[in-house]
């Protein structure tokens, strides 16, 4: 049997009170099955529904009772039919009894595997636990729960309970309290874990959909000193679940070839710089390392002989106040230090240090070399993790800290040195305080919202959903983000219920887009309705690369004034011409004329200043030729009335227009317009 | 101006879809300008222990130090060192009083005392030369800086062309920074002359004055901070990466000519062997079929929100657990360059978060990995040598539920409750904690031993030194300190408390018993081998092999030979036979 093979039975409550949550239950279950199809195609999955109208399970047949429970899918290797089943869960009509369901699920697992497969069997209960459980035939409910957890322990079955509490107030509080205490009993006695979810997003995140068996990073001694050692095992606590790697697809194989792999092989070749056609074989290559401007060749043997080779060990450097280690120095994924399982002494030692650390608010610093032959050392901080469950040992978290070379220190001006126009007023400060208070993600009486432990990765969820969609319909489009996942990427509308606080905050602060910066890359329509704000910062001018809609003249002048390259004058003039033409073309009944006139005047001014008369003269003649006969004639009348003429020889020596010609140009317009 | 509500809400969480990403300057050109006037050589008197130290020495030392670091961290940067007020002249422009130092001989820089300065003031010349040195490289790919060391606060009256120079420098994207050294006879007065030169940084004048270095350590610290240009990671407000992990870059060389090689990647179709361009499609095997995705679709999947930070809410600080961490953090500082008023909002929120002890949760919609981040307000802290932590917010990348594992839950058992420590044990542990207390620990006091060694080896090889330098591993625990009686006693007390008095004997006993069982096993093995040897002696193996009769024997019989000769026993009968044959030399 595969080492990582897992047998999972889903116990799904489909009673009437669950109907609202069922779409999300369907989603999470299908993603679970999908991931099993990809990562754990050997795993077994069974599905039990409770709260159904009908009854169909072995226990009911054999001993009676256990009503309204249907074994939808006996335990079998995961397959794609299951996916279809889970996507369309029936809606039940009866309030289900989750204790009965647990028993039926356990029965399934035990009948299938007997005493084998210990520790690899898991029950997953999704219910709202809002309905009353039946009184057992003998003994109390507590006794029954005790029996259940005994059984689970002896067979090595784990239970994940996901309790949905989305709509509050509807259910009978007394039943809720009773059910909670029952479940709590199970979790205290056996291998159960309970999670309460208050939102659809949390439901998606609450179920561990991919089963990764933990692998130790290090097993050995935590050396407090050469005399005092504690046996520990180190695991990863967080590890980024990456986007699945997709292979490159080759479409070269003929369509008729059914055995084509369509895979792409990537070939690396190293070519000599002197002779690009010559390929250098691997044995002729040598590693070169940069040392300043030089590259220094070092053969791997040579390197091996001298390189840094620390001994495998985990050593204590000392303790220090927790406040000495700022949170933002935590560098990487987190490790967990667990006392060696079964070693009671190690458990006590770890636990007493952890608790002492918590009491005195101190942390430990460690130097770790996880493996022999590893070429680097890790220095990090050990923080206590006091267990909340009786059956769980205390442990540590370990965070990697940076070395001196890794840190970049920067100086930023202090906020108090900013001009007073940037300082918030008292009223604004109050508004900010209110906003912070209102957008509280740990509202009183409700659980924590967006707890990382319960927040699904929206990208991965979306990928797997799209994958399923594509496998059935290859030409489907990427679906929009699921509504229940939107809670992860967008503010919760429930939180911002209090509109007045928001409005207050909004009203207190005035935000203005800086047109100089904005106009460079912003799309035109977005920028067009923005107010013109004159920037006073001269530095901005140096960076303007394009003429925007909000302040074309300023942009243009800034471009002309740029001194970091001569091409900016030409570019500026060219963009201005295009801009003016655009204005005129898009003008409706002359609404853009005044702006165009202003721009034209600016262009003329600049052309005189930069001694580029040709540019302007040609442009004016050109637009005149193009539009003199159209309804844009009005524009040229305005040009004439504003005395915008060609640039004459007296203004710029290079001009081809004589003084009289320049003056008469507008006159010609009058002539042609009549 | 009417602002639509959505827009504003996004703005305060610095999220604007069209915010442009500033192309970061990825290369830095730096010119160190060092004053070599006689004033710089006046030793300062107030420190007895630093007798003979001159400002000039300090400056040179600082530069040397920073060059060393720079080799490690920013090897692509280009550096020039330029002295002014020198007697000799060596520069392309042939201006008097400026000496451009050849950086390649940096090793000899510390011996560079042969610049007896002249009286003539040549600061303008030097700036001119520096600017000329920085002329290469386009603005887009390089950031250019002049770092100036001097103790002369009023070099000359202001010349008319001086402001032109400043403007030119700005337009070329050169920033000028000043590291003032206090004059022996008074404070360095920035406002006399350098205000104009530093122009833009007039706001920060107070910084310069306060940080005018007197001692070498302060100076180094200052330089360290200035060394790295603030690199904008993304212009949201204004961010800068705060932590970076370093590793030596590898270039492949031709072992014959030692010239760099150019790696070439080619894609070959596995079915037809045809050479492909970078294929635009990817596939994922799912349900036994290949599901195709285009590259665009994949990036669409990852596009959840515009490339921005979107504020979702606030939580009390203790809800950020120690294990909520994946990657190095990023630092956020407000900027009014894009949107006026954002600094004000930032400051207001910053204060509220500090006061109410909350952190903000936001969604950071980057294209590579959109994820939830925690924003922690950081108060400005400073000590005598200047700013320690700048004000702003730290952005910490939060894990998703898929990223968190629960290794501690794998070993649930009833004994856990039994292994809870007694109060006495905790007390002993606290005593230990107090004993081994590193009082002044600062996070970056260790340098990376692997990296230090890497570069010292490279240096040795580059300079053809025969002896490999010894690099001190600063990360090893302080053995001497640990051996202090107080600590030893605390450790022993703790050990006795948690392990019991006789732990070592028990441990030794358990090891001994393990060894005993191990030796038992080896005895057993030996007995089997002996038996096999005896059995094996009953056969004439050479004869059997010659006549091809080995195949008539049973596997058990064959294994006698193999065991007797200590050969592997695995495999089918044929494999066994061929193994015997090859052992016999047939």
CATH architecture of the largest domain in chain B: 3-Layer(aba) Sandwich
What is the CATH-assigned architecture of the largest domain in chain A? 3-Layer(aba) Sandwich
Number of domains of chain B: 4
H/I helix tally of chain B: 18
If you compute it from the alpha carbons, what radius of gyration of chain B comes out, rounded to the nearest whole angstrom? 35 Å
User: Number of helix segments of chain A?
Assistant: 22
Subcellular location (chain A): Nucleus
GO molecular function, one term (chain A): ATP binding
Protein name (chain A): ATP-dependent DNA helicase 2 subunit KU80
Function (chain A): Single-stranded DNA-dependent ATP-dependent helicase.
Task: Give the topology, please.
The complex is a heterodimer of chains A (674) and B (586).
Chain A: E1 7-13, H1 22-39, E2 44-50, H2 58-62, E3 69-77, H3 80-87, H4 98-113, E4 121-127, H5 141-155, E5 157-164, H6 173-189, E6 192-197, H7 200-206, E7 216-223, E8 229-236, E9 247-248, E10 264-272, E11 285-291, E12 294-298, H8 300-306, E13 313-321, E14 335-339, H9 344-360, E15 362-369, E16 378-385, E17 395-400, H10 426-438, H11 458-472, H12 483-489, H13 499-508, E18 512-513, H14 515-521, H15 524-528, H16 538-541, H17 552-561, H18 567-585, H19 593-609, H20 613-627, H21 633-641, H22 659-673
Parallel strand pairs in A: 1-2, 1-4, 4-5, 5-6, 7-13
Antiparallel strand pairs in A: 2-3, 7-8, 8-14, 11-12, 13-15, 14-17, 15-16, 16-17
Helix pairs in contact in A: 1-3, 1-7, 4-5, 5-6, 10-13, 17-18, 17-19, 18-19, 19-20, 21-22
Chain B: H1 5-12, E1 27-35, H2 55-73, E2 78-84, E3 98-101, H3 123-133, E4 142-150, H4 162-171, E5 174-180, H5 190-198, H6 205-210, H7 216-227, E6 239-241, E7 250-254, E8 261-269, E9 275-276, E10 281-286, E11 289-294, H8 295-302, E12 309-316, E13 330-332, E14 339-340, H9 342-356, E15 358-364, E16 371-378, E17 381-383, E18 386-389, E19 392-397, H10 415-418, H11 423-435, H12 449-462, H13 479-482, H14 485-499, H15 503-536, H16 541-546, H17 555-564, H18 573-584
Parallel strand pairs in B: 1-2, 1-4, 4-5
Antiparallel strand pairs in B: 2-3, 6-13, 8-9, 10-11, 12-15, 13-19, 15-16, 16-19, 17-18
GO cellular component, one term (chain A): Ku70:Ku80 complex
InterPro entries (chain A): DNA_bd_Ku70/Ku80, Ku80, Ku_C, Ku_C_sf, Ku_N, Ku_PK_bind, SPOC-like_C_dom_sf, vWFA_dom_sf
Subcellular location (chain A): Nucleus
């Amino acid at each position: 049997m595969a080492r990582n093979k897992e047998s999972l039975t889903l116990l799904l409550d489909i009673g009437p009170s669950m109907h609202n949550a069922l779409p999300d239950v369907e989603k999470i279950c299908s993603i679970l099955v999908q991931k099993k199809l990809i990562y754990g195609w050997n795993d077994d999955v069974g599905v039990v529904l409770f709260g159904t109208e009908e009854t169909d399970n072995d226990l009911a047949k054999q001993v009676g009772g256990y009503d309204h429970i249907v074994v939808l899918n006996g335990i079998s290797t995961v397959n794609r039919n299951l996916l279809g089943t889970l996507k369309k869960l029936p809606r039940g009509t009866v309030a289900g009894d989750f204790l009965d369901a647990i028993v039926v699920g356990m029965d399934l697992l035990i009948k299938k595997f007997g005493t084998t497969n210990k520790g690899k069997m898991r029950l997953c209960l999704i219910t709202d636990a809002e309905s009353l459980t039946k009184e057992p035939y003998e003994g109390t409910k507590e006794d029954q729960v005790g029996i259940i957890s005994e059984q689970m322990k002896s067979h090595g079955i784990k239970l994940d309970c996901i309790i949905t509490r989305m709509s509050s107030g509807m259910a009978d509080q007394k039943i809720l309290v009773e059910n909670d205490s029952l479940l709590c009993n199970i979790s205290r006695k056996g291998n159960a874990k309970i999670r309460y979810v208050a939102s659809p997003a949390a439901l998606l995140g609450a179920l561990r959909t991919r089963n990764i068996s933990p692998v130790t990073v290090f097993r050995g001694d935590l050396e407090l000193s050469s005399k005092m050692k504690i046996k520990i095992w180190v695991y990863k606590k967080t590890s980024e679940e990456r986007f699945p790697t997709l292979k490159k697809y080759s479409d070269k194989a003929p369509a008729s070839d059914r055995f084509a792999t369509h895979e792409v092989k990537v070939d690396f070749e190293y070519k000599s710089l002197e002779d690009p056609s010559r390929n250098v074989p691997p044995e002729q290559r040598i590693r070169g390392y940069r040392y300043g401007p030089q590259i220094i060749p070092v053969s791997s043997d040579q390197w091996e002989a001298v390189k840094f080779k620390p001994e495998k060990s985990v050593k204590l450097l000392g303790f220090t106040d927790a406040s000495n280690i700022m949170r933002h120095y935590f560098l990487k994924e987190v490790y967990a230090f667990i006392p060696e399982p079964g070693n009671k002494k190690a458990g006590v030692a770890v636990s007493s240090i952890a608790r002492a650390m918590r009491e005195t608010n101190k942390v430990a610093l460690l130097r770790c070399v996880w493996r022999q032959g590893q070429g680097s050392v890790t220095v990090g901080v050990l923080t206590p993790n006091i267990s909340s469950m009786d059956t769980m040992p205390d442990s540590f978290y370990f965070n990697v800290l940076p070395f001196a070379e890794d840190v970049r220190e920067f100086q930023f001006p202090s906020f108090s040195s900013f001009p007073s126009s940037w300082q918030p007023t008292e009223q604004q400060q109050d508004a900010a305080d209110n906003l912070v208070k209102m957008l509280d993600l740990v509202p009183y009486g409700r659980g924590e919202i967006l707890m990382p432990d319960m927040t699904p990765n929206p990208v991965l969820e979306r990928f797997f959903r799209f994958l399923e969609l594509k496998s059935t319909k290859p030409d489907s489009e990427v679906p929009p983000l699921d509504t229940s996942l939107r809670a992860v990427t967008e503010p919760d509308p429930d939180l911002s219920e209090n509109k007045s606080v928001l409005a207050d905050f909004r009203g207190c602060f005035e935000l203005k887009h800086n047109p100089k910066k904005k106009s460079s890359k912003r799309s035109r329509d977005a920028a067009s309705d923005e107010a013109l704000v004159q920037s006073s910062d001269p530095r901005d001018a140096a960076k303007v690369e394009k003429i925007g809609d909000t302040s074309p003249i300023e942009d243009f002048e800034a471009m002309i004034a740029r001194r970091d390259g001569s091409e900016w004058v030409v570019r500026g003039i060219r963009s201005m011409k295009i801009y003016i033409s655009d204005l005129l073309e898009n003008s409706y009944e002359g609404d853009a004329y005044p702006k165009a006139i202003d721009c034209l005047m600016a262009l003329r001014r600049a052309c005189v200043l930069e001694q580029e008369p040709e540019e302007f003269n040609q442009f004016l003649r050109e637009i005149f030729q193009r539009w003199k006969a159209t309804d844009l004639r009005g524009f040229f009348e305005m040009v004439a009335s504003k005395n915008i003429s060609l640039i004459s020889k007296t203004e710029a020596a290079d001009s081809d227009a004589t003084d009289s010609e320049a003056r008469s140009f507008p006159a010609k317009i009058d002539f042609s317009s009549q | 101006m009417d602002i639509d509500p959505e827009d504003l809400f996004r703005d305060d969480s610095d999220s604007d879809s069209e915010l442009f990403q500033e192309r970061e300057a990825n290369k830095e050109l730096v010119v160190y300008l060092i004053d070599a006037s006689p004033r710089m050589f006046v030793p300062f008197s107030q420190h007895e222990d630093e007798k003979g130290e001159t400002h000039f020495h300090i400056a040179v030392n600082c530069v040397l130090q920073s060059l060393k670091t720079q080799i490690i961290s920013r090897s692509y940067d280009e550096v020039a060192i330029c002295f002014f007020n020198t007697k000799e002249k060596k520069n392309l422009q042939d201006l008097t009083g400026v000496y451009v130092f050849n950086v390649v001989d940096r090793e000899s820089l510390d011996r560079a005392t042969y610049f007896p300065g002249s009286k003539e003031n040549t600061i303008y010349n030097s700036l001119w030369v520096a600017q000329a040195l920085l002329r290469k490289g386009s603005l887009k790919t390089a950031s250019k800086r002049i770092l100036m060391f001097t103790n002369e606060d009023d070099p000359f009256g202001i010349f008319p062309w001086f402001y032109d120079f400043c403007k030119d420098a700005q337009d070329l994207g050169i920033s000028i920074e000043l590291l003032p050294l206090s004059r022996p006879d008074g404070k360095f007065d920035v406002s006399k002359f350098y205000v104009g030169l530093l122009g833009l940084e007039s706001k920060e004048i107070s910084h310069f004055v306060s940080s005018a270095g007197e001692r070498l350590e302060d100076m180094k610290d200052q330089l360290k901070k200035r060394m790295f240009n603030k690199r904008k990671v993304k212009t949201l407000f204004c961010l800068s990466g705060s932590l970076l992990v370093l590793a030596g870059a590898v270039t492949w060389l031709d072992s014959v000519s030692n010239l760099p090689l150019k790696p070439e990647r080619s894609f070959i179709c596995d079915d037809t062997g045809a050479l492909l361009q970078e294929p635009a499609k990817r596939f994922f095997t799912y349900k036994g079929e290949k599901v195709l995705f285009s590259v665009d679709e994949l990036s669409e999947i990852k596009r959840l929100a515009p490339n921005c930070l979107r504020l979702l809410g606030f939580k009390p600080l203790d809800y950020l657990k120690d294990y909520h961490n994946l990657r190095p953090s990023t630092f956020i500082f407000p900027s009014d360059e894009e949107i006026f008023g954002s600094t004000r909002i930032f400051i207001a929120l910053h204060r509220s978060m500090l006061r109410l002890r909350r952190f903000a949760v936001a969604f950071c919609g980057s294209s590579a990995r959109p994820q939830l981040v925690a924003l922690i307000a950081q108060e400005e802290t400073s000590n005598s040598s200047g700013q320690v932590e700048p004000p702003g917010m730290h952005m910490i990348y939060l894990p998703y539920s898929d990223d968190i594992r629960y290794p501690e839950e794998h070993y649930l058992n009833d004994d856990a409750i039994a292994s809870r420590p007694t109060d006495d044990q905790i007390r002993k542990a606290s005593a230990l904690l107090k004993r081994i207390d590193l009082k002044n620990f600062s996070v970056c006091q260790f340098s990376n031993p692997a990296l230090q060694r890497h570069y010292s080896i490279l240096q040795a090889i580059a300079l053809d030194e025969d002896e490999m330098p010894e690099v001190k591993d600063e990360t090893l625990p302080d053995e001497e300190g640990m051996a202090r009686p107080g600590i030893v006693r605390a450790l022993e007390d703790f050990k006795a408390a948690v392990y019991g008095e006789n732990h070592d004997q028990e441990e030794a006993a358990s090891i001994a018993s393990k060894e005993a069982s191990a030796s038992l096993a080896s005895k057993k093995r030996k007995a089997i081998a002996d038996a096999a040897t005896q059995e094996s002696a009953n056969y004439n193996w050479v004869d059997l092999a010659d006549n091809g009769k080995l195949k008539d024997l049973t596997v058990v019989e064959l294994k006698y030979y193999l065991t007797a000769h200590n050969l592997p026993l695995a495999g089918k009968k044929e494999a066994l036979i061929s193994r015997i044959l090859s052992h016999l030399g047939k």
